[in-house]
Amino acid sequence: MSFTRRSILAGGAxxxxxxxxxxxxxxxxxxxxxxxxxxxxxxxxxxxxxxxxLDPGVEVVLIERRTAFHSCPISNWxxxxxxxxxxxTHSYAALSERHGIRILHTEVEAVDVDAKxxxxxxxxxxxxxxxxxxxVAFDYTGIDGWSEAAAGRFPAAWSPGPETALLRARLAELxxxxxxxxxxxxxxxxxxxxxxxxxxxxxxxxxxxxxxATITVLDANQKIVSKGKIFQxxxxxxxxxxxxxxxxxxxAQVDASTGTVSSDFDDVAADVANVIPSQRASRLLHDAGxxxxxxxxxxxxxxxxxxxxxxxxxxxxxATDQTTVGKVPKSGFIANSMGKVAARAAxxxxxxxxxxxxxxxxxxxxLVSPEEGASVGAVYGYDFETGLLQVRPGSSGVSSQRSxxxxxxxxxxxxxxxxxxxx
Amino acid sequence: MLVAxxxxxxxxxxxxxxxxxxxxxxxxxCAGCHGTAGRxxxxxxxxxLAGREAAELSGLxxxxxxxxxxxxxxxxxxxxxxxxxxxxxxxWFAAQPPGNEP
Lengths: 423, 102
Prior knowledge:
The complex is a heterodimer of chains A (about 425) and B (about 100). By secondary structure, chain A is α/β, with parallel strands linked by helices. Chain A has helices at about 5-25, 40-55, 75-80, 95, 150-155, 160-170, 195-210, 230-240, 285, 320-325, 330-350, 405-420, and strands at about 35-40, 60-65, 70, 90, 100-105, 110, 115-120, 125, 130, 135-140, 180-185, 215-220, 245, 255, 260, 265-270, 270-275, 280, 300, 305, 315, 360-365, 375-385, 390, 395-400. Chain A has a domain at about 165-280: FAD/NAD(P)-binding domain, CATH 3.50.50. In chain A, the strands form 8 sheets. In chain A, strands 5-2-1-9-21 form a 5-stranded parallel sheet, covered by helices on one side. In chain A, strands 13-12-11-17 form a 4-stranded parallel sheet, with helices on one face. In chain A, α2 packs parallel to α11 and α7 (about 195-210) runs parallel beside α8. The radius of gyration of chain A is 22 Å and the shape is globular. Chain B is mainly alpha-helical and about 100 residues long. Chain B has one domain (about 20-95): Cytochrome c-like domain (Cytochrome Bc1 Complex, Chain D, domain 2, Orthogonal Bundle), CATH 1.10.760. Chain B has helices at about 20-25, 30-35, 55-65, 70-80, 85-95. The radius of gyration of chain B is 16 Å and the shape is globular. The interface between A and B is large, with 58 and 41 residues.
């Protein structure tokens, strides 16, 4: 029997789930207890490796479209010409060679919640438990004038890949004294300080390479979402006259022919424009019924990051609903921490043990210039009364000022956490 | 197309001593900066933790927590753990084989 992607898509999501078990071929039969991990990003990689560290008797199949890992954290450094694309691109090979994880690089069509399987272009991979880490989808609805031409003119570069290189190149090609525009979506979005780090590193690049050039920011939020005092001070002191920051200015309209981004009040015509769009849980989770109708993110019980809408399915990373998790940021560090908690919960369930309560950390490093940075972070435990993660008292904090120490640590943080996921 | 489909014959993985206890559970997120099982990549300005004396590590965490030893990151993180958790963390890292991860 065979199936084609086309026939499945034509049938729509509802028909898909009922039609698939008979049409789609099962591949990679399990030889023992198995966890199938969807998504080779921060949450999924960590979960895959830690399941194997916790119990080498549990098989892990990791399904990921890309054949190399591209890091989202540090991608702003690439856009700002501080690091290269190669330096944020890493191999998945050690996960199979060193940890015995089966890696399947293929397109994912659907998550079959009832069969606990992932439907891929190559066939159906089933497991005893699923750990889903599919990340975010971009949502351009509500932006007047959005079109295919607009997508080319206003790259997001909010998932690392070709758009990262594109934005980097466009910055270098900016006319002398030209104008960059950047728009920030309403929170929550992936990486709260990310847009502000990007603004800072673009400003630093302009200051050095293109005197007279400026960057105008339309921020949908009322104020800088993360490390506000640090970023504002850096812009005032390091980049006077370069950064024009406008809060409370949601993107309402674009015009690809003129390169203009507009809020309800301002039109900003720019030579280079970066639209960071609104975000929501991956379409795969919506289609699988793991996001309630009308909702944006996937609800989970953070004790083991199990879906509240299906059994034996864990969801980690940026796709999870903060109102059900607790006030953790959508950061790579948190996704790494979530992956470990989910791995522990999955292995406990497969071996008939009770999972211990979760313990997580977040630390987010941001550069404000090529030489200086700041960090924010906290330790989180599980609150049995509310069923949410809660900051351990006294453990939440942000740098009091920018420093060179943090900038040095930031790079070695990235090296360490890449190793923790991929090494 | 199936690509890079590895046989599940694993070369020996990194030696992580005891993944089961409370120390392992608490220490897992520390790897985000200090590397898996406290082994940092070579040349890191962030120190490795694997195989260091438990008394040294618990002393450092207590000093970070009280502010006696200044560090923005470690000050706030150390305040997230009580005495018994600090002891469990220190003992677990002390039991890990020292070295660097590749």
